[in-house]
Amino acid sequence: MTRQIASLISALYLALVFVPVRLPAQNRTSSAQRPAAAETQSIESLRSRLAAHLNQTRFDPASWGVKAVSLDTGRTLFEQNSQKLFSPASNAKLYTAALALDRLGPDFKVRTSLYSASKPDSSGTVRGDLVVYGRGDPLMTARLNEGDYFKPLDPLVNTLVNNGVKKIDGDVIGDDSYFTGPPFGAGWEWDDLQTDYGAEVSALSVEDNCVDLFVKPAERVGLPCPITMGPDVPYLTIMNRTQTTSKGTETRVTVYRPVGENIVYVTGRVPIDGSGYYSSVAVHKPAAYFATVFKEALSRRGIVVTGRARSVDWRFRETSPINFSRLFELGAIDSSPLKDILRETLKPSQDMYAQLLLLHIGKAAEEASKPESTPLRATNRASIKPRDRASSNRAARKDATYDAPNIEELGLNEMTDFLAEVGVKAGDVLMEEGSGLSRKDLVTPNATVALLTYMNKHRWADVYRSALPVAGVDGTLERRMKGTPAEGNVRAKTGTLRYVYTLSGYVTTAAGERLAFSIMLNNYFNVERAAAIRDAAGRDASGGGRTMSPRDDVDAVAIMLAGFTGRTDSVKTHWPNRRIEGILPFAAGQTDTSNIRTSQTKTSIDARQRKTRRADDRDRDRL
Question: What region does 208 belong to: left with phi over 0, alpha with psi -120 to 50, or beta?
Fold first, then answer.
């Protein structure tokens, strides 16, 4: 009886702890940040706390999927709906990154080449067009080059300068025919396609295939707001429908680029005493954009181009294939190694980069099936075996017009093979593309924890872990879980779509036990928070209270795991009616948490800082 009374009191306490209340901002702390005393906690108590949090009535319309497994003992600490399919959002990048690392290796590099039909003559003139042939290097961006829009192209320009090129008597052609298939991931929605996180995917990319827009107030009220672009090249057409308004009025600007066009409509108002407005808009036909920026970069270095900037794609090459044997490679540069690309993909949650990784896998699979492959696209070969497409687990889709393989689908075929090696149960991962932007992607927490467990013992496990955001330190977790046991401890991939919030990765408990976990919250709309956002207008800044966001709710689970003082190997534990699926044995080891690598993407430009955090903030006002 005494034990029953104690259990009742404990349950009532936990229920009170997890009732959502508004507290003053300076005193507000999550219940997950207040682990009970220093005494060793039991697994049962952890499970009770987690269950109390997940089973609050406000989550009744939503779906939670959670699983946490010890990497030291293989035992399951907690799971709820771990066998069910959930939308992973950007947690899908965990799968794409693991596949790329396993198949391509951490030192894989991507080559970009400059071709022409002739060598420069004695005057330094190249007679004919200059072809910039891309093979999918995503990192030519000011975000990684101190905010300088043209610095990423300097190495490519230098190859021409060093070869004595002074004039291009022809066009600059951006050739992105290396990848065949649509410029978007399967299932990407039209209203994402003008945004920076929905940018078209191309074998030739610059500035993340986006243009930065800066809207500033004019000198007088009533005048249109000046709009500048970065990089400042004649690619987008701006329709300026803005107005400068009086002091104290609200900044309200809308940017719209119709799908398939490069005309951008900017409407709205900016107060004369305001700081302005910033947005990043994706461009249509990125290869032509690259050619335009590269032509300007050549001009800045004194190389004259008599023609125009234009592009060709794989559809053009169907009828006019490129013949490398008749071309001269005037220069070439290699990208940073894959381990750096993974970091810049996972930490800021870059959708275009993740999709490019999947296309690289598909291209490697295509090349492996050919008796002779095109010129090396990288400094090392991919470890992908030839396969019979007819026997593939997924039949490669064909483009509706051209009889060419869909490289995305070939990459997904390879994903299916990889997941079988991981030990993931068939049907537990249904991927349509590589980034998680598609609402059609579905995975189970079981599969995600199985993947994390497999990668924990992978030969390049350190590369994989170091690419993940670190709570309270960098990437999309930089501002989350600060001042909790998870800070500097949790290494995990975030995920956000409308009504979807996910977090999966690694954590070390307070007792030193290493865990892999997956937390997925789907179909959740916080009515109270949405109402607070609509009428608060600065309530937080004024010191008032605020309701918990869905990210807080997800983070609370990770924080409880980080603060857990018990161990799975200290007591015999039983998780009734549960079984560990897809978890493979692994070697125990130490997680080095002292060497936290921060993302190398910070610059001195505020717009750049916003851009690195953009992906998982895309729906923060729609909660």
Answer: left
Per residue in 184-236, pLDDT (tens digit) is: 999 999 989 899 999 999 999 999 999 999 999 999 999 999 999 999 999 99
Residue numbers of the chain with a pLDDT score lower than 50 = 1-3, 5-37, 373-381, 389-402, 537-544, 573-610, 612-623
Per the listing, tokens 């998680």 go with: 436
Rounded Cα–Cα distance for residues 387 and 389 (Å) = 6
Other beta carbons within 10 Å of 111: 19
Where are the strands (E) in 458-603, listed by range?
491-497, 500-508, 514-522
In angstroms, what CA-CA distances link 515 with 45, 72, 250, 422, 571?
17, 8, 47, 18, 17
| Mean model confidence pLDDT for the chain | 84
Pair 198, 437: CB distance under 8 Å: yes
C-beta of residue 135 within 8 angstroms of C-beta of residue 203: yes
How far out from the chain centre does Cα 399 lie? Answer: 26
Q: Which of 454, 459, 467, 451 is nearest to 596 (CA)?
A: 467
The one-character DSSP state at 187 is T
Report cis status (omega within 30 of 0) of the bond before 231: yes
Structural domains of the chain, with CATH: 2-104+411-597 (3.40.710.10), 111-335 (3.50.80.20)
Residue whose structure tokens are 């991981």:
422
Q: Is the dihedral of CA 511, 512, 513, 518 positive or negative?
A: positive
User: pLDDT digit string (tens) for 321-338?
Assistant: 999 999 999 999 999 999
pTM (2 d.p.): 0.84
Structure tokens at 35: 């682990």
